[in-house]
Amino acid sequence: MVVYCTGARVMPELSRFFGIIIRMFAEPSERHHTAHFHAYYQEHVAVFSISPVALISGWIPQRQQRLVEAWAELRQDELLSDWNLLQEVADLYQSPLCSKVIV
Length: 103
What we know:
alpha+beta
């Protein structure tokens, strides 16, 4: 996982496929209750829970939504592991001086 830090927001990009970008966000000042990731396709953004894989909010075209859901189902354990790791390291990268960090 590659982690980019911009101010207090940690933005790992997990994957790119068929024009879809998958990211996880961690905001050290906030604790999310549901493990989730964000999917970007063109100007559309959708948020999916990890377990179970389901659309929480936002919208992407149906074909891309199905691709994201299938991708996430195959990588559910890895996504949960990434989520837990991101929550642990988010506090370490609050500095605006933070640059690209490999986790």
